[in-house]
Task: structure prediction
Amino acid sequence: MLCQDSALTIVNTKQVTWNVYCAAMDAARAAGLTPVLPDAALDESKIRALAKQSGDNAVLCIHMSTLLCPAHRKRFLQWIKIWLSENARVLCVSTALIEAGINVSFPIVVRSLAGMPSIVQAAGRCNRSMEYGSGAVYVWEFAEEKLRRLPDIQNGGNITRAIAAHGGSDFGSLSVLDTYFKREEDYIGAIKDYPIKSLNASLSELLAGNEERLHESKTFGLNKELVLNQSFRTAYEHFAVIYQKTKAVIVPYGEGSKLIADLCGEHDMQNEMRLLRLAQSFSVNLFDAAFNRLARDGAIYAVGQSGAYALMPGYYDDAGGVVLEQRELSEMII
Result:
């Protein structure tokens, strides 16, 4: 069996990443392959032994996204590196978190359509040290992937598609990249001042001359002249570095279960801070919609005295991480 059968697929959204992973597992079984899932109880020597004895039909199947806590993702990366080093077959379906700072090398990389910088980053996970002789990078436009809430990625993909349609398929060439960034300038120019549609203004205007609001202020009946023209409070209300805020939830993965139990027990504040630092590796950041839904279902509860939250065991899956419905767990265990 050759490691050239291994492949990394990178997708733009967490939900589609999981959907593709599940579909790939079904396709592997239909093709007569045997999916192998990582066992958290195995140490490095046992993982390596399992990789060495894996037959031609075995394929290590890995899902990677921020629905997994950092410790979980680190464990999965350990499995990937060991299996690849032993020329065993690996299939990994991941979000873009694997594109930067992760030293893995696959012979085949498939990247869901995005901006060229993302595609080049993905290509950096392919044949990194020329260990495969040659590698292959494919760009895949996945029609089911909805990017309305990810305008930067959507715009980047649109530019990439347009350039490819006119013969610019060599995404690594300087001329093609130069064309990409020149076309992206129009998009950057439209958003760089942080437009606020509801006010028909921009953040830059509110914090600069602010002429329109200064004119409106003359109707306020003020007793004194304004010292500053800027609308600091309005700017604050409309600005967000990250559009959707998240809340950290400690998950019952590995040592996370013990940390949750310790946080629920009696301890002083100094020990609680120590436990919370350790818990960072076993925490998942959830957007408000997911957090609120899980909280309504009683899947999230407070631990300790610092306002930390933990997730009930039935809502964390060994392959997919956080799931929104407990009944989905049986369906997701493979």
About this structure: Confidence is low (pLDDT under 50) at residues 327-334. The CA atoms of residues 248 and 285 lie 4 Å apart.
